[in-house]
Design brief:
The complex is a heterodimer of chains A (401) and B (377). Chain A is of the alpha+beta class and 401 residues long. Chain A folds into three domains: 98 residues, Butyryl-Coa Dehydrogenase, subunit A, domain 1; 111 residues, Butyryl-CoA Dehydrogenase, subunit A, domain 2, CATH 2.40.110; 146 residues, Butyryl-CoA Dehydrogenase, subunit A, domain 3. Chain A is built from twelve helices and ten strands. In chain A, helix 5 packs antiparallel against helix 6, helix 5 crosses helix 7 and helix 8 runs antiparallel to helix 9. Chain A is globular, with a radius of gyration of 22 Å. Chain B is 50% helix and 16% strand. In chain B, a hairpin with a 5-residue loop joins strand 6 and strand 7. The longest helix of chain B has 36 residues. Classes of the chains: A alpha+beta (401), B alpha+beta (377). At the A-B interface, strand 9, helix 9, helix 10, helix 11 and helix 12 of A face strand 6, strand 9, helix 9, helix 10 and helix 11 of B.
Amino acid sequence: MDLSYSDEEKAFRAEVRAFLEEKLPKEMSDKIRKGEELGKKGQEEWHAILNAQGWLAPNWPKNFGGAEWDAVQRHIFEEETAAAYAPRIVPFGLSMLAPVLQKFGSQEQNDYWLPRILSGEDWWCQGYSEPGAGSDLASLKTEAVLNEEGTHYIVNGQKTWTTLGQHANMIFCLVRTDKKVKQQEGISFLLIDMETPGVEVRPIILLDGTHEVNEVWFTDCKVPVENLVGKENEGWTYAKYLLTHERTNIAGVGFSQAGLTAVKRIARAEMSGGKPLMENPHFAARVARVEIDLMAMSTTNLRIVSKAAAGTAPGVESSMLKVKGTIIRQEINDLARRAAGAYAMPFASEAIEGSNLALPDPLSAGPVAAQYFNNRKLSIFGGSNEIQRQIIAKTMMGGGA
Amino acid sequence: MNFDLTEERQMLQDSLRRFLRDKYDTATRNKILESDTGFSADIWNALAELGVIGALFTEDQGGFGGAGFDIAVVFEELGRAGVVEPFLDTAVLGGGLIADLGNDDQKAHVEEVIGGALQLAFAHGEPASRYDINRVTTTAKADGDNIVLNGRKAVVVNAENADMLVVSARESGDAGDEDGISLFLVPADAKGITLQGYALLAGGRAAEITLDDVSVPASARLGEAGKAFKAIEARIAAANVAICAETLGAMETACRLTRDYLMTRKQFGKPIGTFQALAHRMSDLLIEMEQARSAVIVAAGHLEHDHKARESHVSAAKNLLGRAGRLVAEDSIQMHGGIAMTQEYELAHIAKRIIMSDHRFGDTDHHLERYIAIAAA
């Protein structure tokens, strides 16, 4: 047992920190710290800064233009970027689609799509969930039928919860190509240009007033057969492979650490009974309890990360980290809105234009209640916590559960 | 023992529930949320006509109710429908304080409130007061026959719509003293008042108020100089009963929507409510609903009792509703999944009402501490 980082890892951390100090624009980190929207332009700017450094694709092999960091390095990078309030890179192209292409795509597909992901030329979104297929993803109904000439798939159906689909020009979709076989065996993995006639993006406004997700509708969309990844009807295998990548950084340790720092800052500014709220033993106990949970969880995360760095693929542990990690993050969101007291109530509504130019925020807390509501999504998306618990039970109880 | 509503209250509940079911659906309410004023004058007037405001005042005050149970009946229905109109601020707080402390001239305003013609706001909380209702630093100083107010008031709900403000200010003593606090009835357009308005996350609007040498005649004072604290505390107790009842009504809606969804939404070929992991959680919510209902009944029933009984039961209810409310709001969203995260779904607004009720007049922690302190006193 040795709880310290190696000299190489420490040097790496210092390198990351120096890079962030030099290259992360102040107005960008300010926005992230205040919980403001970065927007498409800001996202693209940060994307380009990381690409110039060669750090945009930490998980890609070097021959594809990636940094090929091991799991510990990636963990250090995530910790440092969260602490510096760097934007989160939109993961759909870089860490979700790319690994699938690299493992199952053709040479031509890799040569064409991967450089465009790095350059930012393509903005990818994910077409998985449907109104009737959420936790039960394999029941998806969007169908793709090969035309008579065999040159195109004709796609019809609807996807939903498409994150940042309003910015995307490409979408990777799970589509049904065979209705006669077992659900999982009739699904294919298709790349669709959002400019194709028949694709329509409709916004979904979330309960905090934000436009993060969309519905994407397909009506007789013609998609070239070259855009099929791997083999027809084997898309479920690729989807499961992709989901294991969706679960990297699943514990969100960096976000929780940054969030807890913010809670303490708010609670030092907020007064209660003539003293800072942070000195109220009741509130301090709430903070301490989460801090203890986070300390243990980040160590669990490191234990799993070290195993992964040594080449053992994480299995049920990533489900455990998803559940515990989201519980902790949501608890921190709850503490932040609690700490802000009455000042958690104001709301920068996008619906009422111009009426909220100067929201009162004497605590510099940011929109803590809106974030609390927005982050209820953490325990729902990417496989809900109920689904994760089911995976844990099935794995650990030999299918008996 | 009899836990039934009186015939009058039952009728009030029925007619209010029917009205809101017919006239206050999700689409209507969401339009109100996006409006500049944050409330609907039509709804306000119709509910005033229905007697909803009159039910919040005693017969002596010109109403036909005013007891804890009247307040609870009205606000449970408002909560059930997610109503954002400022009944709490104009009637229970503003109107209530005038009725409790005002002289005959001042009390004339209560009739206007009951008729729906007058809007009020209670400007009490300050940037550094959090939930301490005795922490008033806004000053009131005599200047000849007039009184001059200076200070800052935080998150004053309904301030922009209000015709008059009920402003607390200190005439003597230090920031945390109960003695020395007075209330003044100030026209909202008085010289020296600046409002910075904004929308609230759970609907309605509020404002930061700056009082800069606001001069009012001494006749604007409600009650005796420096002696307003007891009335403020009693009115905030009534407001907390209203908030708890409103939260209870909203929790009822959250549970109804969740139960319906669990029985109709199918995944893996069957309604998701047939999965034990969800069925047991739903059962827990229903158990907590009964706890919450009882806590509201007990608090409402003690509103007219002595100080210790009243404050202790109100704090107990606010603590329990804070805990049960959070569980119901969060688990209702979780069991729905993504759909509950969307603005156009009823539960989104209802969940916000439930959670944000914990940010007015003391959260669940504040009231736990207060409950302990009252028991020790």
